[in-house]
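Aim 2 progress update. The chain analyzed this quarter is reproduced below.
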Amino acid sequence: MECIGNIKNNIWINSIVDQVMSKEGILRPKQGGVPEGNKGKSEWQNAINAGYDPNAVYFQMFTKDNLQIDVPNISSCGRQQHWWITKMMPGNFMPMHVDPHAVQQQNADRFWIPLQDWQPGHIFMYEDYVTTDYKKGDIFQYANSAALHGAANIGSTPRVVLQVTLHE
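Predicted structure tokens:
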């Protein structure tokens, strides 16, 4: 995973963060169920077998359907952009997993964009690397869009991140 730039000066970031902080998103996975696709299902089953509660809330998800703003395209490459925002409250976590859509979509590139500066306890793990000391708006590109990753918030403030997939 590599930091390829920063978009902190984009005016929409503060508006999105304000909206995300002021309301509850879609509770995941509680309201979302088991992931689709063989890869997602097997890792989800591994998490359940390890003791993770499939009915717990791991994070809140925001999309253009529950925000009053749409995220502009982060690239002019002409591919489709799929985005969502995750808000993890203190004590929330997401087991190591692969996002099923990243495996299913052709020519997918994944990006992880924190919408706030790193704070102690805000954890993102990509394969065997833990990302710390990031800045609001940093754009991290996955070297492999189907890589194993997970997250946790063992801090004392909400953690807000933009996830973007570009695909054919």
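The chain has one domain: 2-167. Helices lie at 12-22, 38-50, 100-104. These observations will guide the mutagenesis experiments scheduled for the next reporting period.
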